[in-house]
Amino acid sequence: MDNRQDLVAKYARQAPRYTSYPPAPHFKEMEDDGPAVSHLEKRNAGSRPISLYIHIPFCASLCWYCACTKVITRREGDSTEYLRRLFREMETIRQMLNPGNRVVQVHFGGGTPTFLSPEELRQTGKKLRSLFAFEDEMEFAVEIDPRRMTQDHVTALAEIGCNRASIGIQDVREDVQKAINRVQPMEINERVAHWLRSAGIRNINIDLIYGLPLQSRGSFEATLNEVKVLDPDRFAIFNYAHIPWMIPSQKLVDRNPMPGPHEKFAMLEMMIENLTASGYSYIGMDHFAKTGDELSLAQQNGSLQRNFQGYSTRADTDIYGFGMSSISQIGDGYLQSVKDLDEYYRRIDSGRHPWFRHYYLTRDDRIRRHTIMRLMCDLQLDFIAIGRRWNINAKTYFGDSLEPLKEMADDGLIRWTTDGFFVTDTGRLFLRNIATAFDVYYTDPEKQGRYSKTV
Ligand code: SF4
Questions:
Q1: CA pair distance 331, 361, nearest whole angstrom
Q2: What is the atom index within ligand 1 of the atom nearest the CA of 143?
Q3: Is 62 in the pocket of ligand 1 (CB under 6 A)?
Q4: Domains located in the chain, CATH noted
């Protein structure tokens, strides 16, 4: 099948994004902290590089498309209350960590990390440095909403060591912005990018979303050309995940017409063509990085990694998540914190850990996680290499699960090689579909309804 329209019709299905394996809906409810605590203790018998994820849930207004775990508020005191618990959680985990663990990556996500006042950002940075040992060459990234940023926020971020900022823009057209309740004139983006660079935060990512109401291929190309002027090192351009049955506020997005799968597919093809012609490499899926950026180099030399923050060059470290709804990925275990703010406070105030779900990978999960992550990063699989890594005959091991790949090969999404297959240019647009072949949980119909469509 080489007709793109037919491929879109056939493969526009709900599937995980594979930022973890198994995907988070398969994590299990925790009855007590015992297994999680002993998992952490075992993992900390030796020292290793670690990453920290800090979740700041507050936002001053609701963007209707948003699927993040957030709390809408304008009360400044809310962040003070939150930080008190966040710091306590960090102190507790710090006591469980091997003192030899050194931090190679910090990520502030949200919500809106810059909801914190400049002074609160400074306090958070100071707290982190008092508890953890930071490597000199570490990455310190912060997600930024330019709408309420002041120059003092940027100064505070630079002071605490931030060296990468992701500016959330989504789309620059006013009609689209009104249709998603996120009005953000381009001058604000330009001003914040200028402040960041002047403060020495030179690594700048821009986040966009395609598939939003009132967008078309043409309008999104205009947006892309406009934001390219900001000269970011990287773009993250996400396919809008419209799942109103899971996120009721997304019903507000339905007030305006949304591009269908065929138009979205045309947008994806356009952005790949546009950005690769402008000196960016297409990384895995959703991401673009300037040729020469460490993400592009990592993709070329096979060291690219994937985790909850997308693609990374440092994702093979344990990730300790702090704050409500954060997920820790520690060795072969995942721990997720409660998603309700009051419950998070109750647990921390009573001296308990905030985790409510966990998952410890079996050997089969580990083999499949490795396989799916290599596919998502390298865009090819070498069954001989996988067999050697896990001491298995990979083709026999995956057996029947390789059946769907035969049809994908017939459809031109992959091409077989002597020892495996590689993903074709067409197949890259359906990477999540290809990965489902190795996901033993994908057939669970109850969980499938929680994923967004691949196109
Ligand atoms: S998109 Fe960002 S700023 Fe908007 S509601 Fe979601 S987390 Fe908050």
A1: 9
A2: 2
A3: yes
A4: 24-360 (3.80.30.20), 363-448 (1.10.10.920)
The pTM assigned to this predicted structure is 0.94
The Cα 199–Cα 142 span in angstroms is 14
Beta bridge partners of 144: 167
pLDDT digit string, tens, across residues 72-112: 999 888 999 999 999 999 999 999 999 899 999 999 999 99
With a 6 A CB cut-off, is 66 part of the ligand 1 pocket?
yes
The ranges of the chain with pLDDT < 50 are: none
Nearest Cα to Cα of residue 96 among 120, 71, 145, 131: 131
Looking at residue 73, its pLDDT comes to 94
| DSSP-assigned letter for residue 240 | P
Ligand 1 pocket test, pick from 58, 68, 108 with the greatest ligand atom count within 8 Å of Cβ, gives 68
- Tell the residue nearest (CA) to atom 6 of ligand 1: 66
**How far does the centroid of ligand 1 lie from the alpha carbon of residue 342, in Å?**
20
User: Which residue is it, tokens 């691949």?
Assistant: 454
Q: Are 193 and 166 in contact (CB under 8 A)?
A: no
Q: Cα separation of 284 and 208, whole Å?
A: 16
Residue 273: predicted pLDDT: 96
Residue to substitute in 58, 63, 209, 252 for testing ligand 1 pocket (most ligand atoms within 8 angstroms of CB): 63
Residue range 106-134, pLDDT digits in tens: 999 999 999 999 999 999 999 999 999 99
